[in-house]
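Q: Joint fold for the lines below.
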Amino acid sequence: MNTIGLLHPGAMGQAVGRTLVNVGHRVLWVSDGRSAETRQRAESFTAVPSLSDLVEQVNIIVCVCPPHAAEDVAEAVIGAGFAGVYLDANAISPQKSRRIGEKMTAAAVDYVDGGIVGLPPTQRGTSWLHLSGPRAAEIAALFAAGPLEVNVLDKQIGRASALKMCFAANTKGTTALLSAILGAAAEMGVQEALEEQWAQYDPEFPEKTRERVARNAHQKAWRFVGEMEEMVETFGSAGIPNGFFSAAADVYRRTAHFKNAPDQPDAAEVIEALKNDQ
Amino acid sequence: MNTIGLLHPGAMGQAVGRTLVNVGHRVLWVSDGRSAETRQRAESFTAVPSLSDLVEQVNIIVCVCPPHAAEDVAEAVIGAGFAGVYLDANAISPQKSRRIGEKMTAAAVDYVDGGIVGLPPTQRGTSWLHLSGPRAAEIAALFAAGPLEVNVLDKQIGRASALKMCFAANTKGTTALLSAILGAAAEMGVQEALEEQWAQYDPEFPEKTRERVARNAHQKAWRFVGEMEEMVETFGSAGIPNGFFSAAADVYRRTAHFKNAPDQPDAAEVIEALKNDQ
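A: Joint structure:
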């Protein structure tokens, strides 16, 4: 069993960390500066005060953080003198993953590219960790007994991130598109008529769509902004039209302030917020 | 029963015209310059050589044409000296519909805004004609006994077009998004892995998606380009992020050349075409 560093776990990262603890690994995390709520949820991990303390004690680091923070976290790990295997499991473009990988390689760290699809893992068949890179199989082995399904793609850095981007482009891109449609329909006075037309095809679609739009705005939209910007780079670099994702980033930016709402907002509140470029 | 002019019927327009003929109306169309295939499909209508001939014989005109042509057709009708009720049933922005309406009103033509959702009408419950405008109810009455479901929204020009835009933004916008995703996945070498991940959620989704992408490229993408540009104006004017639709227009522009393919292309051919900005 291994001692593994976990950076900087939110809901998904903590769930991934718990799957490691549950199969017998020891998981360290850096607790300084994290909220009381995060500390409470991380109680099954061993807290160390600083990144320097963490890198001294582990030879594997797993990074699960919002996409906009991934490059800074990686540079901090290099700066702290880490030597070992580093998994970036974040929703970043393959281009960014390769940039991080090059820096890691230059610092003699073994870099593994990763991407997580699905819910925070609690049972098999609901969450997948896709991996690519020369040492991907070693990372895969860590999770073998747990509920997170692990899929090693190949040795090429960027493949796992490419897959994650394409998968999330559909789920989060479609939600953003539907949000924009409800926003435009409301602004033009045809939301009710649109929902009636939708219901002709699927009676549940209007309510499901409103719920999906509201759920994604609440406590999620703020971090989807960065993920959509990663897709802009991903699709643009592949030579494919990428304006879907700059528009989706705008949608999530306009609803990012629901991050701190105690309860899920009504769809009507989210739709109203979409009209305004704040 | 009425004598109605029908401009410039493709597959949808002809089906709409046949519903009028089937309930007893006489439908005139301008046959000059149309293909032999179109003439054959229009055999249940009365052909007149020119627009001038048509406007002399009818007091109702129904226009079903590609969105980029709608304004030119309307201006030609005004130029030909039409006096009567004019229905624009095209997939255009409410802004364009209002512009056309203002020109019609200035020329003493009664303008009705319309939008068609669904398949070419052959049975009830599969196609809807949404109408708005002061004289919408008179147009609705023409279709009362046929298979096309007619829905009068209100008296405000632009409402029917707004509804059509919002409905098609989901169907055609999502298809464009999925096309882009398959194109990016193929370019990055993860199409198979993506389809396997999709299949974990819905085993039929990969094949359905490939079929949807291929079906929309064949003989449809060329006219979706203009429709996506109408959505750019519609959403932009409503103050809602609209980059989804400029990207979707790009997707359809890259596959527009499948217009003349005798058979539906393979999804792989469409995906390949998406990589290149032609």
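Q: Anything notable?
A: Chain A has two domains: 3-157, 163-274. The longest helix of chain A spans residues 159-187.
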